[in-house]
Amino acid sequence: MEKHHGIKLDTEKMIIGIDDTDSNEGMCTTYLGALLLEELQEYGTVEALPLLVRLNPTIPYKTRGNAAVALKLKTDCPEKVIAHVTSRIGELARMECEKTNPGAVFILEKDYETLKPVLMSFLEEAVKEVIEIDNAKDLISELGIASKSFKNGRGIIGALAACGAMLNPEKWDCTFEYLAYRQKEKWGTQRDVDKDSFFEADRETYPETWDTVDLTNRLVVCVPRSGDPVLFGIRGENPEIVSKAAALIRAEPVERFAVYRTNQGTDMHLLPAQNIAEIRDMHSYRLEGTVSTAPKTIEGGHVIFAVLDREGDEIDCAAFEPTKNFRYLIRKLVPGDRVILSGSVTSGTLNIEKIELKALTPVYREENPKCPECGKHMKSAGQGQGFRCKKCGTMSLSKVKYEAERDLEPGLYEVPPCARRHLAKPLARDKRQDIRLHPAR
């Protein structure tokens, strides 16, 4: 555990960042945040909504959703706050999990202005890039930031990023999530929820809320399946609308809830790719190119095709099986279609989150000519002898080429809610007027 760095104990305001307390099997960093919201009132006043920040979704050593939290507090006893937060992390974090490496940082008011630009850059890097633990530790040492780390301390990366978000609320697009938590004795058991109530809540509040349900696949998507404390989470444009939707849910008793300000549903993770040569694994991009191979379905139901850029480089793109009905759209692509793809790259393959069809290439078919007398299609008159209408006796030398109608139209399409990543911006939030949207409803 690291020692405190440069703390002035008479300060009145502070920001607390926490990350990496959960595991694949249970616990949730947002639950710890919600718990601390209540407990820290013993030491002061919470000044703003808590923050939930999703980081780079491609990081292989993440536990589940790669989320960090931040709290803003007014207090006369920051040393007691630090001790309490540290103690609660030690009690609740799933330390037995190899991937769980908690970290916490504490930013004091006297340092707000100095750290604002530095930690905003760090936030953007943590969402878009790959940061090593040593880089975060060096930054903490260089800036004299108070910190605590457990095991290898990887959580200080997310903790610093969450503090950067809290320091710069006007610098990033935000959404909100209402998170309801289960009573502790229920953790690890099947959740008791009325599925119909989620569809009712969606009808009442969509499109100001989204990803509550997946209408096409008839699934409730805001209820997790793992053994963590979350009962459900409602995402939306403002605190009022997510609270309205949550009030319509019928489910087992709730221990507590919290409304978080988040970067979910913002596309904050996407980098613009000028060409395929600059694309790297463990990053997410928006890439324009031309379909160069026909989509094919491989084992497991995944649909793969290639896209070519202006320099002649190719990259494989995939609509994986969990994207369900989205794969039907992808199978309709043909070489020559102009597309803009959004998604994350792993093992050299771009996992599609959204696709904009910019221009569809014409597709031509051939058919037997029609008889000018009766309008029926002629039959082959024999090899090399052209075509003849048996009824009228009319003749034609060759088949007729025509442009086929494509069961597809230009526009912006997305994967269904059941396959959406936390950071991917749903079309329900897209305010563009220049193209037709095709929400996955």
From TrEMBL:
Residues 15-74 form the TiaS-like TCKD domain. One of its GO terms (biological process) is tRNA wobble cytosine modification. GO terms for molecular function: ATP binding; ligase activity, forming carbon-nitrogen bonds; nucleic acid binding. Coiled coil: none annotated. Residues 153-269 form the TiaS FLD domain. Keywords: ATP-binding, Cytoplasm, Ligase, Nucleotide-binding, tRNA processing. Its EC number is 6.3.4.22. It catalyses: cytidine(34) in tRNA(Ile2) + agmatine + ATP + H2O = 2-agmatinylcytidine(34) in tRNA(Ile2) + AMP + 2 phosphate + 2 H(+). Pfam families: TiaS_FLD (PF08489), TiaS_TCKD (PF22641), tRNA_anti-codon (PF01336), Zn_ribbon_TiaS (PF23783). One of its GO terms (cellular component) is cytoplasm. Its main location: cytoplasm. PANTHER family: TRNA(ILE2) 2-AGMATINYLCYTIDINE SYNTHETASE TIAS. Belongs to the TiaS family. This is tRNA(Ile2) 2-agmatinylcytidine synthetase TiaS. It comes from Methanosarcina lacustris Z-7289.
